[in-house]
Amino acid sequence: GCTVTPVRQQADIKVSKTGQSVCIVAGGSSNTYSVTARNDGPSTAFGVVLVDTFPAFTTYVAGSLAATSN
Fold it and tell me: Is 13 within 8 Å of 37 (Cβ atoms)?
């Protein structure tokens, strides 16, 4: 017969946020940062949602989002 070895699926999601470390940004100025998420596996991660909430009184600059996938 065959031997069946159960495999436990497990994703290992890592999230980091890097960029300018400023507490106050003058009106009309910008603050740039990057959010990186990766799965160190070993299994595929399904249904992952990443939310980065802007601080109060912050405005998103249209077209400034760049997303990549490896």
Answer: yes
